[in-house]
């Protein structure tokens, strides 16, 4: 029999499941959405409290919810049977927080980890998060959730029916439903007939993903060199301490509700472009080249153009499927893509070893997470061909954003490290070399969090234009954390057998 360490030591080839009993056992016991995102455009996230229930009552309802959960094997088989752009029906997953494990009684082991056991609110000061009292409505400000049940499907009616049934049943069992966060994927068509998932600022999202399913790796376009998007599953999966099989695995899961001020961001983005490029024409009188430059200013904030084209590779949108294996080896001084640009901050793609010396890529790879987020809030209106948003001057300022979700093997070493040591760290990555020879980059202008105005000032240089001069310009924070929690995604054998 293979050990779990062996299975997690190389990308999983799930088509082996028909022949390889160990791989099949592993996939049948693992929850969906970890190895591969569920891909559905509609979801509901039902947060609940077990307060007032006895351990045997909690175990009974966890078993019932566990029976409804989708396995990784079911998800992958369902997707394979369908044509492109269709999904394989509902996906359901259950996550427990540390308090949820405690509610199951002393015979259930709480997964290890200081961050997981403390909970997100207790770690918030180190992350730069607002106080829980400022997290907003829908229960986030009052009671920490013990569990979250995720329901995803291709159409909103199916998700509504599923979520309503779960809520009604939970209420009958004495569970308190704290909140239901609805996911609704915003899309744009940058290429004819191809709908790309974007966040509410309008940029392609979820592209720079680690791949640890061999079938996904085989389908990815690869050019020689560059960033290696292939990862071992052990970076995202761990042994389930309560699993019934030596192959039982689970994953730590971070959920954060991130509200976006789209109107504020767009105004700041345009102001930045006008200052950098000296553009004075009214918006309806811009030349094509002036619009390209304004688009480039936005790419200097995010690190890629709205269609996903990496700024380090082009001075404008390429109109092609964005690559995933690019790196910054040809832009070591960050003249083309700033060190502070969001996607460079949270995935430096070789910058660390280039700046501090050495050849070990692991310091820049270990914190990478498997992100599975979805947008929330009302969809922004499109133009006729769905390529642009049609709400200029009326963009939302609140109640829209991203439900950030990510799987990982270590909350401290992946999510918290990325937020504290990369996104919130004004010195990263430019000024981490021992000689301190480069200026500080400032915090991540998208997800960085700090009340210090100085770290919101960045140095902007358009290296795509010969003779361009660097300018120091502040870019404020337009993403606000509105709630969240640390969870664990247990094995199905645990969920379906706990308390028996």
TrEMBL record:
PROSITE patterns: DYP_PEROXIDASE. GO terms for molecular function: heme binding; metal ion binding; peroxidase activity. It comes from the Bacteria. Its cofactor is heme b. Keywords: Heme, Iron, Metal-binding, Oxidoreductase, Peroxidase. One of its GO terms (cellular component) is cytosol. This is Peroxidase.
């Amino acid at each position: 029999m293979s050990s779990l360490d062996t299975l997690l030591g190389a990308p999983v080839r799930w088509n082996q499941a028909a022949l390889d009993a160990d791989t099949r056992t592993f996939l049948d016991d693992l929850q969906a959405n970890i190895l591969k995102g569920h891909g559905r455009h509609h979801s509901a996230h039902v947060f609940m409290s077990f307060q007032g229930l006895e351990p045997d009552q909690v175990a009974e309802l966890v078993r019932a919810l566990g029976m409804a959960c989708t396995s990784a094997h079911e998800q992958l088989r369902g997707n394979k049977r369908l044509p492109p752009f269709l999904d394989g029906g509902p996906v359901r997953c259950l996550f427990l927080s540390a308090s949820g494990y405690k509610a199951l009684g002393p015979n259930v082991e709480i997964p290890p980890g200081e961050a997981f056991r403390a909970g997100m609110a207790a770690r918030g000061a180190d992350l730069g998060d607002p106080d829980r009292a400022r997290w907003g409505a829908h229960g986030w400000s009052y009671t920490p959730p013990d569990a979250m049940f995720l329901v995803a499907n291709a159409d909103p009616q199916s998700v509504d029916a599923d979520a309503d049934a779960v809520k009604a049943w939970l209420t009958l069992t004495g569970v308190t439903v704290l909140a239901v966060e609805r996911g609704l994927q915003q899309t744009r068509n940058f290429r004819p007939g191809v709908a790309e998932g974007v966040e509410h600022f309008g940029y392609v999202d979820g592209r720079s993903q680690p791949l640890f399913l061999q079938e996904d790796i085989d389908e990815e376009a690869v050019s020689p060199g560059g960033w290696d998007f292939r990862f071992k599953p052990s970076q995202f999966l761990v042994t389930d301490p309560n699993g019934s099989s030596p192959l039982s695995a689970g994953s730590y899961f971070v959920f954060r509700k991130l509200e976006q001020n789209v109107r504020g961001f767009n105004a700041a983005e345009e102001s930045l472009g006008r200052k950098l490029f000296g553009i004075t024409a009214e918006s309806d009188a811009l030349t094509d080249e002036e619009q390209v430059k304004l688009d480039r200013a936005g790419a200097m904030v995010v690190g890629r153009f709205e269609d996903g084209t990496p700024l380090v590779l082009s001075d404008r949108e390429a109109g092609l499927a964005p690559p995933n294996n690019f790196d910054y080896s040809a832009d070591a001084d960050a003249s083309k893509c700033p060190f502070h640009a969001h996607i460079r901050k949270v995935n430096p793609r070789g910058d660390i070893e280039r700046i501090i010396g050495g050849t070990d890529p692991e310091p820049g790879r270990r914190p990478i997470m498997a992100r599975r987020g979805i947008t929330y809030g009302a969809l922004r209106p499109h133009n006729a061909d769905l390529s642009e948003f049609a709400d200029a001057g009326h963009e939302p300022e609140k109640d829209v954003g991203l439900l950030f979700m990510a799987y990982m093997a270590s909350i401290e070493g992946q999510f918290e490290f990325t937020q504290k040591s990369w996104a919130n760290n004004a010195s990263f990555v430019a000024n981490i070399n021992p000689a301190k020879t480069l200026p500080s980059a400032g915090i991540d202008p998208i997800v960085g969090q700090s009340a210090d105005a100085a770290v919101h000032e960045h140095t902007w240089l358009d290296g795509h234009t010969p003779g361009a001069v660097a300018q120091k310009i502040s870019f404020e924070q337009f993403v606000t954390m509105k709630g969240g929690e640390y969870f664990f995604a247990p094995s199905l054998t645990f969920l379906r057998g706990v308390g028996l």
